[in-house]
Amino acid sequence: MPVRSLRQEEAVERAALLSVTSYDIAIDLTGLVDGPDFRAVSTIRFTAAAGGSTFVDCCAQVESATLNGEPLPAAEEGRIALADLRQDNVLVIATVQSDTTHGRGVHRAVDPADKNVYLWTSFEPDEARYAWACFDQPDLKAPHAFTVTAPATWTVVSNSGDPAIEHVDEGRRWTFEPTPPLSTYNPVVVAGPFVEVRREADGYDLGLYARQTLASALERDAEQLFTLTAQGLAFFGERFGMPFPQRSYDQVFLPEFGGAMENYGCVTWADSILQRHEPTTSEWQVFANVLLHEMAHMWFGNIVTMRWWDDLWLNEAFAEFACMWAAERATAYGDTAANNLVGDKLAAYLADQGPASHPIRQPVATVADAESIFDSITYPKGAAVLKQLMHFVGEDTFSTGMSAYFAEHAWGNTTLDDLVASLEQASGRDLQPWRIAWLETAGVDRLGIEHTADGLVLTAHGAHGAPHPQVVGVGAYRRTGNVLEQVGSTMVEVDGERTAVEGLPQADLYLVNHDDTTFATSRPDAAGREVLINHPSGLPTTLARAVAMATVWDMLSSGEATAAEVVGAYTDVLTVETVETVVEPCLEHAFAAAQRWAPEAERVGLEAQVAAAARHLVDTGVSRQSALRILARTATGADDLARLREQVGDDVDLQWYVLQRRAELGDVDTDAVNALEGRDPDPDAWIRGLCVRASSPTAQAKDEAWAAMVERTAPIQNVSQISDAFWRPGQDDVLTPYAERYVAALPSLHEGGMIPGLALSFVLFPVFAIDEAWVDHAREVAAADAAPVVVGSLTERSEEVLRMLRARSL
């Protein structure tokens, strides 16, 4: 049945007509043990203007529907018409959702190892309507009370903790207390035979859940997860002037889930985040960032919610900024800014310089359009802009303004105007110029240093005119032997295209944005370029080196540096860097520059340079696991692999990397793959076996992997891993047909919801066996035939690949 996407004007009209009092939702999960059916009865109490008419959203199969005791007409396009409303109304709609394998909103997953069944819901932005009837828009908030009947061996988790449990003929019935007023995308129900770990911390009851076959990984990581959770709750409660207002805080790790979701009091995660091996420091950094991002949403998004999706950035950009703020101030990950600089921020710089660029805040006509802006502009650019705002007004002032914002608007809905007003009140500054420049215009500034007769000048060129108002740091570094000593620094408040820089001495390098206070690309002068390319290891701090690496990478993507120069710069930094949360992404970027950005004639030599850097890390004990993975991925033959097997020993994770590289070099050892799959305790070890075969340069292997991704037999959380194995350099002959198969798949990649649309369009995009004309063709087909979420994701990915192609021709 085709469904309509809610338009903003419809949402405004409906919100003016009615107010939701409560949702009481009775759910029956007993049919999911052996079948697909998710059953729900949604009882909605609401007030309205008497005599008015509207509709309720419902995309599940309707079994019965009444309004004030009178039967309702059949649903059309995901809507049930409601006429002749009373002042007080009761709507009761019984539904069944049977597409719980590839449908939206509700998912039934089967653990391949022990065949246990797990059920989860996930609703952002408007997929609650696929689970039960509701008024599915963010500004119609209401308490949700769940009563869930489930098999006797299952545990049910929802937003409210401490449910009442009773035995019934069908199994057990779980009754949860009503939530505070929540938007319809924010409630959750998850169920299955979970393993559970709980801990008391600072008055909170913290819970962790995972499928039984991941019990050992959950128990291994539980102490660290509880520590991070307690640190985050304490930090946000203090900085926002509002402790998290519920005693329970649960986190559930789920099979076949994509990403993570900030459901109030019950965060859900893809359980691939639970590493099957001992996590590396960089993997823990990712874990901490996501944990704190979803936690920040408890305040920014859940307690206070945007009125409409044009203020989506109020959710995502703020949570992304806040997670890094909390990580640096409250956890062991004090180098989060440097980690972000050599990671997500690079993606935002690139996206904001190409066709994917858009204002952080932009008109969103329908909810379907909102799906298309979950991207690098909304997340890392938005986070960087808010960090700039905090520096612009001062951290204490920023915290005061946010506390006032939450106190005034708790459990309600806001717009950007409300946020800006709170910060203006706290700072005493007119923030309208800042707001217009940063949030409502697109593009990234280019900053630089110019030497004049009157002294240093900071140059600033806006993408579409004047540069943004911003405060930026400039550091002066003077070479002494192999060391670049910082001999001065200053903060410059940019007020135009040219701003005098006062108080800095003569230096060999003036590093703009050396303390990462703004969102802008920068370029060194001629002398500074020589330092950044040939001797960035001389910079004295991890953050300064990260700024240098971000600058060098942006030069690569803009065609101003070659892949060879970039590999040289990154491997030079890796001779001195010891902060593993920076070492690991730098190593990955060096590897990517060698394999994906370099001309084919230079690739093997640059891979050898990266391998030498990895051997140095192994010898010094820095990021050993990651370095051995790189050595496996760059091994050139039997001798390399034999030496590596000696170093790997019994490490199952690294043994998979060795087998995958063997396959890429043309030797698929089926017996070894089967033996390792049987020995690996990971319930998803079959994915690693698939990746081994996907790396092989054979048509049969590529076809198997492609089918697993496109036909959705592989979980969405694993498609990036499989795709990386699939698209390998030097295999153009066997990869060429998949460029057109990608184009043919574009109209269907969004089926199943926003997460598949985002993930598949991005990771399946070819990186080899294509040219610039093909990229143009793919963009044209997507614009004509694909969903908005696919168009947005493809546009961002295609720009990066287009720049790779150009770099290969240098």
Explain this structure to me?
There is one protein chain. This protein is of the alpha+beta class and 810 residues long. It folds into five domains: 1-192, Immunoglobulin-like (Sandwich), CATH 2.60.40; 305-439, Orthogonal Bundle (Neutral Protease, domain 2), CATH 1.10.390; 549-634; 646-725, no CATH class; 727-810, no CATH class. The protein has 28 helices and 28 strands. Strands 5-4-7-2-1-10-13-12 form an eight-stranded mixed β-sheet. Strands 15-16-17-19-18 form a five-stranded mixed β-sheet, with helices on one face. A four-stranded antiparallel β-sheet has the order 8-9-14-11, with no helix packed on it. Strand 15 (195-201) and strand 16 form a beta hairpin. Helix 3 packs across helix 4 (312-330) and helix 8 (377-393) packs across helix 9 (395-409). It is globular. The mean pLDDT is 96.
Short description:
The protein has 810 residues and is of the alpha+beta class. The protein contains 28 helices and 28 strands. The chain folds into 5 domains: 1-192, Immunoglobulin-like (Sandwich); 305-439, Neutral Protease, domain 2, CATH 1.10.390; 549-634; 646-725, no CATH class; 727-810, no CATH class.
Q: Whole-number radius of gyration?
A: 27 Å
Q: Count the strands?
A: 28
The count of domains is: 5
What share of the residues lie within helices?
40-55%
CATH architecture of the largest domain: Sandwich
SSE-based structural type: alpha+beta
Number of helices: 28
Oligomer state of the chains in this structure: single chain
Largest sheet: 8 strands, mixed
Text of the CATH class of the largest domain? Mainly Beta
Average pLDDT = 96
